[in-house]
Amino acid sequence: MVSDKTISIKRCKLTNKKKKRTLTSSSSPSPSLPTLPFDLIPEILCRLPVKFLLQFRCICKSWKSLISDYKFAKKHLTLSTTHTLHCISYRDNAHVLLNSYSLDYVLTYITQTQFPSPPDSYLFVGSCNGILCLVREGTDLVHLQLWNPSIRKFKELPPISTPQTFVSLYGFGYDPIIDNYKVVVVYSDLNRKMELKVHTLGTDSWKSVSEFPFAFVSAQRPGQYVSGTINWLVSTGIKWFIASFDLGNECYQEVLLPDDPCKVDEYKLSLSILRACLCMISGENVWGMKEYGNKESWTKLFTISYLRVPRASSYSYIMAECVLENEQVLLTYNEDERFGHISYNYKNDTSKFIELENFPEICVESLISPCF
Known about the structure:
Strand content: 35-45%
Number of helices: 5
Distance between the termini: 92 Å
Number of domains: 2
CATH class of the largest domain: Mainly Beta
Number of strands: 26
Oligomer: single chain
CATH topology of the largest domain: Neuraminidase
Structural class: mainly beta
Largest sheet: 5 strands, antiparallel
Helix content: 10-25%
């Protein structure tokens, strides 16, 4: 006959065995989760919108280091397809705001950002690789700022002293030779000679290049950047042409306009950029230069039929300002001394009235910082 003591000892041994099995089971390693190859992670991240990448910097140190790297930012730029239209607005003389619109099939308002600078009057100089260049003209000084609104990075450039002079032209673009950005200002000196100055990002001064060789009486002041050059539409009073400045070689070139058979009001001429090609808007016709600098490569891209129909005749003034992405053209009209804008789709001949303050600038989304 088994005693109670013997039964108690057996039960104790069984309980200890169960505990050991439980401990062994709980301490055994769990099956490893599938992981991506390390080289594949940058390939995925560089295709994402900037707003997600800014959040992903907080995931781990390696991701923060990767997303903050300049080489990664350049690769992301080559794959970036998001273009945004920005407009400057003012509120109660106390705030400068940047209104941003998504360039989808129709212009859609997306956000508003306060400008990180004093509430003065600003104008767009241009944009390049996600960086906006803006200018504030004072009595004796000209102040220029660079701003990437996607990453909220801002840089103030050294001011230019311009006593008793007149600033005529501005430009901003990328110098592929030195892999850096440059701002260009053309102004007349006391002897009425046109002088061109260049500021290279990361330096603390402006460099005088040489006398500006083109004499003109009127011009489209902000230059258009394309193929490493800044381009201004200028007039001698007799003819219109494009004055071009090469940022890498710091030399000049005259680029001829297309031979448009239609007689166009000179005030309805403007330059624009479409898919990295220089565009010429000549009244209702839009031309594209397939090979930069080659006059023979000008090709008529399309006609803005909106300017032909009776609905446009009620305006005292209407013209095409710039070519947008996704088959759109930005039109400006004047009706009863009131300016407005129209987004016109030249593919399906549709239009939409939009409310924009001041003249806009198109900017690609990027991680490129102006703080070199």
